[in-house]
Structures are given as C-alpha cells and as structure tokens.
Design a protein that fits this description.
Pfam families: ABC_tran (PF00005). One of its GO terms (cellular component) is plasma membrane. It comes from Polymorphospora rubra. The chain has 257 residues and is of the alpha/beta class. The protein has a domain at 9-104 and 174-254: P-loop containing nucleotide triphosphate hydrolases (Rossmann fold). 37% of the residues lie in helices and 27% in strands. The chain has nine helices and twelve strands. The strands form three sheets. A six-stranded mixed beta sheet has the order 8-9-10-3-11-12, with helices on both faces. Helix 3 (111-121) runs parallel beside helix 5 and helix 4 crosses helix 5. The longest helix has 16 residues, at 186-201. The structure holds adenosine-5'-diphosphate (ADP) and magnesium ion.
Length: 257
Amino acid sequence: MSAPQRPMVELHGIHKSFGPLEVLRGVDLRVRAGEVVVVLGPSGSGKSTLLRCVNHLEKVNRGSVRIDGELIGYRRTGNRLRELKEREILRQRTHIGFVFQNFNLFPHLTALENVAEAPVSAQGRPRREVLELAAELLDRVGLADKADAYPRRLSGGQQQRVAIARALALRPKVLLFDEPTSALDPELVGEVLEVMKDLARAGTTMVVVTHEVGFAREVADTVVFLDGGVIVEQGPPDEVLDRPKHERTRAFLAKVL
Ligand code: ADP
Ligand code: MG
C-alpha cells in the first residue's frame, strides 16, 4: 500500500449514550493518511453518531479522538481533560471536512460563494485567493460552468458536488461523508461517487458512511462493519464483503447486496 503509515484519525474507546440509550459502546478505529475507510452498518447502529463524535459535534462520554495527533475537543492538563473553548473547537473543525446527506448548502449564496465562505470567514484567508481556489475546486468536481448558480437551480448531484468542493476548500486533514448519496435520485448517484473516487485516488484521507457496496469494493482500503454500537469486523473489502467472519455481517450484506 502506497499510503504512509502516519495515523490521521485515531478513535480510542469511544462511548456515547443519549440518556439511557447506549449508542456507541467502545469503538476503536485508526485511519492512516491517504486511507479510505468505508463504514457499513444497519440503520440505527451509530454510524452518524460516530462521525459526529469525530469532529466533536457530539461529546463522547468516554474515549478520545485524535486528528493528526491532536486531541479533539479537549485539552489535557496533568491527568485531567478540560473541554476546549468553542473558538478552539471551531478551529479544530476546520481541519475536518464533513459532507452531509442533505448537502446543507447556503441557499442565498451561489455555488462559488458557498465554496469560498468558510475559508474567508473561519480561516481569515484572503478573499481573492480563496475565490480563485473555489473556482478551481468547482472545476475539479465538474461544475466550472455553475459557479454563479444558486443551489435551488442545481440538481441534487450538483449540489452535493458543490458541498464536496466546499469541504475541500478548508484543506481538511480528513473528509467525513455521512451517506452522501442517500438523498439522491438513482441516476445522480454515479456523478457524486465519481468525484469521491477521484479524491480517493488523489490520496485524500476519507471516512465514508454509505450503503454503496460497489463503491466500498472499488475504493475502500478498509471496510468497517458497525452494529449495535461496536465494530463487529473490519478488514480489506474482499475479506469483509466476500468472506465475512461474522453472522451479523453476513446477514447485513445479504440485505444490501
Ligand atoms: P445510524 O447513522 O447508524 O443510522 P445514528 O448514529 O443516527 O445511527 O443513531 C444511533 C441511535 O442513536 C439511534 O437509535 C438514534 O435514534 C439515536 N440518536 C441519535 N442521535 C440522537 C440524539 N441527539 N438524541 C437521542 N438519540 C439519538
Ligand atoms: Mg446515519
């Protein structure tokens, strides 16, 4: 494998409950720089919660998250952890790109402005330089001709590609995708997966929650099967998808394949 060994994402003993509901029950995961991890699992198994814990949108009850070695959400003083101030958390989040199922573009901004917004407002980068970068990124996702279009004039697939360009504009260390094609009409899924494949080939570190098993087979370095808040099994796609060791994985795959 050409990817360097440096760990980019390290989840250690993640526990997360909502009231009495234990959603994550001790999740350990390492993602190396340049690695693509696809997370599969039934609805309600905790996939979205896990991604949200990575960028501290959810506070974990126990365990730790590190991105490129940096503890997320907390500062260690002696042997105590203190939560970081909101401003610090926002700074950390700019290193973690997040692509949602429902695009979440700003409706009152054009495609170009959507991509350029955060690098200017959250990172204070020069507007002219950022606009140039935004135009390049729109070109990279095949939307150079849509720079001035507002989201409502774009198809779901185009909106999601803008959302990917927007995530890239922050130059994140890792990109998280939460079912990025689940809200799309079937004929629009392919164009979004193609963009994601390009990113993977370019060495982007990615954690992708998806039911697209074909994408997992083709692109993933590692497939993780999450069920009941624990990683039931993980490994290379041909192992997990074609020779699953656990009955729960087999039962899940029988339903989605
Ligand atoms: P998945 O993405 O795998 O479908 P989720 O992480 O969204 O699963 O949800 C896992 C479980 O946690 C579900 O039972 C869901 O209802 C519950 N859950 C998620 N977020 C919250 C929340 N903010 N408050 C209460 N329960 C939640
Ligand atoms: Mg989910």
